[in-house]
Design brief:
heterodimer; A: 7 helices; B: OB fold (Dihydrolipoamide Acetyltransferase, E2P); 28% strand
């Protein structure tokens, strides 16, 4: 196994440290919400996870459009890697959402617009990974995936506004809303800090995953060469 | 050749437009996640026996618990209409008078909503426990939970 470079280790270490500080801040240091009580603290995982998932989907969207234009597999590696990380964080979002929903709403799940669209987006990106896994030609897989990933941006915009356009059980947005955040500063700051920490973790995952893709690509090429010689 | 291609394009466009229209109208009907109490009181005869959701604020002083029958009775309002709800069993912790709730069940002939599931709704506001709730903040909560004027 190739050893991580010093910069990569520093990057991963910084992400871990930031998350540790952020979670201590949110889970232990500040008071919980007056109405919901202690269970509100799962917000410090739920919101950073969904923010990260949205960024991952956005990166996949941009890289996919760039790939369709340039047809460069190195750009596709960014799209594919980001989609993989996006699926993980969407999964964490759904799980922490259910865990938050049971003690507050009284149900793990309900088919309101926000939850339904989130489930559809999750299924879409699981589908993306399946398309990538089943494609026999790298170029073909990249092309099918890129076409699917173009739906990513409309999907997250729809999901953001789902709680505003329709009646839902899920509450409207607390952060990105007209009139500014509806979160008291003492809760807002650790929340923003945890979002930043999670995004640093995402950037670490993305760089390492892209590096892995490059190694795989090189391995496949050298196998091909050996095959030709033998 | 060009004319033929145009014909296909026009035909395809019509099919796609029809599909989008159908999906849009279908979605518009089904995205009504819950009815407000005033909507339900308007259409109660047509929805009798159908399973649906009603959402509103729990009316202050309307909540009654009968421990013998395990029956929870309360009223939901959107500021105009009021619906009487009966529920067998308990409610989530955050379900309380003056707070938002969505109930699943059916409208009955006897003039009340028979609930099979209570869901407590909370607002998008988060604050530490210090300052007492003002009337103004309650009004804001009311607005954000009901989303007045939205489908």
């Amino acid at each position: 196994m190739a050893r991580l470079s010093f910069a990569a280790r520093l990057h991963g270490g910084a992400a871990a440290l930031l998350l540790a500080v952020g979670l201590y801040w949110g889970l232990l240091a500040v008071p919980a919400d007056a109405f919901q009580g202690e269970v509100q603290r799962i917000m410090y995982l739920h919101v950073p996870s969904v923010s990260t998932a949205y960024l991952a989907i956005l990166v996949t969207f941009c890289a996919s459009i760039l790939y369709l234009w340039k047809r460069d597999l190195r750009i596709d590696a960014v799209a594919h890697s980001s989609a993989e990380i996006g699926v993980v964080f969407l999964g964490i979002t759904l799980a922490t959402g259910a865990i938050w929903g049971k003690p507050t709403w009284g149900v793990w799940w309900t088919w309101d617009a926000r939850l339904t669209v989130t489930a559809i987006v999750f299924t879409m990106y699981v589908g993306y990974l399946m398309v990538r896994a089943f494609a026999e030609e790298p170029q073909a897989g990249a092309r099918y995936g890129a076409v699917l990933a173009v739906l990513g941006l409309p999907a997250i915009i729809l999901n953001h506004f789902a709680v505003q356009w329709w009646r839902t059980l899920h509450q409207p947005s607390s952060l990105i809303r007209p009139g500014g955040p509806s979160v008291a500063p003492v809760i807002l700051w650790p929340l923003v800090f945890n979002i930043v920490a999670m995004l640093v973790l995402y950037s670490y995952f993305l760089l390492e995953r892209v590096r892995l893709e490059r190694i795989r690509h090189r391995a496949a090429e050298s196998r091909l060469k050996r095959g030709r010689r033998g | 050749m060009k004319g033929r291609r145009l014909k296909y394009l026009v035909a395809g466009g019509i099919v796609v437009a029809a599909l989008v229209g159908m999906i849009y109208s279908g979605v518009k009907e089904s995205v009504v996640y819950f009815y407000t109490p005033s909507e339900l009181t308007q259409k109660k005869d047509s929805v009798e026996g159908k399973s649906l959701r009603v959402g509103g604020m729990v009316v202050d002083g309307s909540l009654k618990w009968d421990p013998q029958a395990l029956l929870l009775t309360f009223q939901l309002t959107d500021g105009q209409g009021v619906v009487i709800v009966r529920h067998k069993g308990t409610a989530p912790d955050l379900f309380k008078e003056g707070a938002g709730a969505v109930v699943e069940g059916t409208w009955t002939r006897d003039g009340y909503f028979r609930s099979s599931n209570i869901m407590a709704k909370h607002s998008e506001e988060y604050k530490p426990p210090v300052h007492p709730e003002t009337l103004e903040s309650k009004k804001e909560l009311f607005k954000s939970i009901l989303k007045e004027g939205k489908p």
